[in-house]
Amino acid sequence: MQILLRLSRIIDDLNERIGRLTYGLVILMVLVGFWNVIGRYLGRTIGQNLTSNAFIEIQWYIFDLVFLLGSAYSLKHNEHVRVDIFYTKWSPKRKALANLIGTIFFLIPFSIIIVVVSWGAVLNSWAIFETSPDPGGLPRYPIKTMIIVSFILLFLQGISEAIKNFAVLTGKLAPHQESHESEF
């Protein structure tokens, strides 16, 4: 079990670092969006085009990255969407059991399905070096690749969560030790 908990810690550390990177991406996204608005109005005033489709697409791509890369981080920190009607009143072991079942039967298979289904579209996008159809648009293949990357990260975080929940159920890990700061 200690080997599995070490593996869980490695996965947690990876997704923690990637999640913290997304904080910076949020700031960058806001700055690009701010420039898109200011550049459009200032450009009209001075009669010069100060923004482009590329800037708009950069903002979209950054948003995509925040959403895609932030999903595993959100799961790690138990900040994902959940219907808490019953869950909040459950004991830690019952929560661990529900989380383990949900992870094994829903999260992990869903992540695998998304990677498998997306694989062909991503490969096709790379094969033709797909770009945006908009004038001055950006390449699409890198952002499409992030779909696969994000679901692999989500799959890995699901493995980590399954390990931790199993450890809670077997008494090898206290429920409060599930966070990143815990010592395995």
TrEMBL record:
Pfam families: DctQ
Alphabetically ordered keywords of this record: Cell inner membrane, Cell membrane, Membrane, Transmembrane, Transmembrane helix, Transport
Cellular compartments per GO CC: plasma membrane
Subcellular location: Cell inner membrane
Protein topology in the membrane: Multi-pass membrane protein
Domain (Tripartite ATP-independent periplasmic transporters DctQ component) ranges: 29-166
InterPro entries listed in its UniProt record: DctQ, TRAP_DctQ
Sequence intervals crossing the membrane: 21-38, 58-75, 96-121, 141-159
Major location category of this protein: membrane
Family per similarity comment: Belongs to the TRAP transporter small permease family.
Protein name: Tripartite ATP-independent periplasmic transporter, DctQ component
Organism, as annotated: Trichodesmium erythraeum (strain IMS101)
